[in-house]
């Protein structure tokens, strides 16, 4: 395995991220990162892809927020289990990942935890609720058509709200699983920052109708509120990335937006992008948010 120091140095050099002062947070020896594609900070840019801890199908970015945090804290041991498409079920079960002709399986994410783990970050729940998959179904060539609301709201009942509520006990159980395996760990739970703008969106730049853009924005708020409830109930620390992300959604111009829209290309840095996921500016924002939370 490559040394953490070498990997972290590469991440900082690639992103221009400025590490926090060493005195900004307590010291940690063993850091484990868990989560889905927003934790892996998934990328289609093969020059930024890392397979150090996961198979290539996980699309894990070598400069993701967890690696930046590990570099800033100079932890002795670091393992990153985050994988695109992950749900809470993949914390304890193998996750088959087949993407771009890559075959492989990400071992259960909790396998990286030990009794000596003293720092854990987790970002999970979007796939449990099905919100990530729902975004793709909102794409429309006609702004007068709102396929998401038509699909998800039936007889006045919002099924996405139901799925978000159903995901809550699963995320709660994931926190309990971390505590069981790493009882001394400080646990930070991240939420999802704003990716699709409310107030009508920006069709056709992001080809989602104004009605569906507002619906998606509201569902993300619901999802983040659920994560906040879990954090409060379980006593873990919430890293609220949503609160500081206004004005950096996918409707904004390059250099301002922290998440990409439908077009699978980003200028930050130039290259292939995963639609509706953080670009490097968003990744750096996540890292800053975690380090600020650790310093509290």
Automatic annotation (TrEMBL):
The domain of life for this entry's organism is Bacteria
| Residues of the SGNH hydrolase-type esterase domain | 33-282
Q: Entry's Gene3D superfamilies?
A: SGNH hydrolase
**Sorted alphabetically, which keywords does the UniProt record give?**
Disulfide bond, Hydrolase, Signal
The residues annotated as the active site are 37, 277
Q: Which residues form the signal peptide?
A: 1-24
In the record, biological process GO terms are:
triglyceride catabolic process
Q: Name one Pfam family in it.
A: Lipase_GDSL_2
Q: Name one GO molecular function term.
A: triacylglycerol lipase activity
Q: Which cysteines are joined by disulfide bonds?
A: 58-83, 138-148, 202-251
Q: Which PANTHER family match?
A: LIPASE 2 (PTHR37981), SGNH HYDROLASE-TYPE ESTERASE DOMAIN-CONTAINING PROTEIN (PTHR37981:SF1)
This protein is called SGNH/GDSL hydrolase family protein
